[in-house]
Design a protein that fits this description.
It is a single chain. The strands form two sheets. The chain has a four-stranded antiparallel β-sheet. A four-stranded antiparallel β-sheet has the order 5-6-4-7, sandwiched between helices. Helices cover 42% and strands 21% of the residues. The protein is α+β, with helices and mostly antiparallel strands. Keywords: Cytoplasm, DNA-binding, Transcription, Transcription regulation. One of its GO terms (cellular component) is cytosol. Pfam families: TACO1_YebC_N, Transcrip_reg.
Length: 253
């Protein structure tokens, strides 16, 4: 076990800002429950359709279900999506990733699930164009982001969480303590290991459980550009086929 990895003082830049961005995103979704539940229904169905409809045998499905719990997605929606997959529905969804730029060179990644690729591409392109942005080519933005497991919970201190994870021999990138919550950042393939170690230590609920794309460096926009940027993000997130939107802008408190 490399103890150097478990430093409360981050070796990453601005992790506090990154956590604020995640909170802002989650708060935005929390007030749009009907739309978000619908998106989760599609994501759960697609994950169950691509593999076994059992989360213990399908890691992608397990991740989606853990995320769904943090958004209080009703069991009926989850069960209906899984049963649809079990029933042999012929409806298929393609996973797509778009990369682009917003005002002042801000960077945006858009992940979508769609049963109509042309419709989705046109809608995403239009959202960028109408809100001061433009689409980029594949790889033009993603290299500035790191895929990361982010797991948050309450009821323990960062030091206690560090000890739990060390005893379980689980590697993480960093651990932060903020506003009575502990936030663990880890490699994507450690997502389940972190959760299992914490569950074994008595943590039963998570405030965040995401596989996300974190910008290596966040930027701050001037007020007018930030207002336009927020319109761009809102327009993208409102699109029916868009599941996740990631960016490198510090949205502040």
């Amino acid at each position: 076990m490399n103890q150097r990895q478990y430093t409360i003082e981050s070796e990453w830049n601005n992790l506090g800002r990154k956590w604020n961005n995640i909170k802002e995103k989650k708060a935005s979704k929390d007030v749009n429950t009907a739309r978000i539940y619908g998106k989760f229904g599609i994501e759960i169905y697609a994950a169950a359709k691509q593999g076994e409809p059992d989360p213990e045998a399908n890691q992608a499905l397990k991740v989606v279900l853990e995320r769904a719990k943090t958004y209080n997605v009703p069991k009926a929606i989850i069960d209906r999506a899984i049963e649809k997959a079990k029933g042999g529905s012929e409806e298929n969804y393609d996973e797509l990733r778009y990369e682009g730029f917003g005002p002042n060179g801000s960077m945006v990644i858009v992940d979508a699930l769609t049963n109509n690729v042309n419709r989705t591409a046109q809608a995403v392109r239009a959202a960028f164009r109408k809100n001061g942005g433009n689409m980029g080519v594949t790889g033009s933005v993603a290299y500035m982001f790191d895929e990361t497991a982010v797991i948050g919970f309450e009821g323990k201190t960062a030091d206690e969480a560090l000890e739990i994870l060390m005893e379980a021999d689980v590697d993480v990138r960093d651990i932060l303590e903020e506003e009575n919550a502990v936030i663990v950042y880890a490699e994507p393939d450690q997502f389940h290991s972190v959760q299992e170690a914490l569950k074994n230590a008595g943590i039963t609920e998570f405030t965040v459980a995401e596989l996300t794309m974190l910008a290596q460096n966040d930027i701050t926009l001037p007020e007018d550009a930030q207002a336009q940027f927020e319109k761009l993000i809102a327009a993208l997130e409102e699109l029916e086929d868009v599941q996740q939107v990631y960016h490198n802008v510090d949205l502040g408190e």
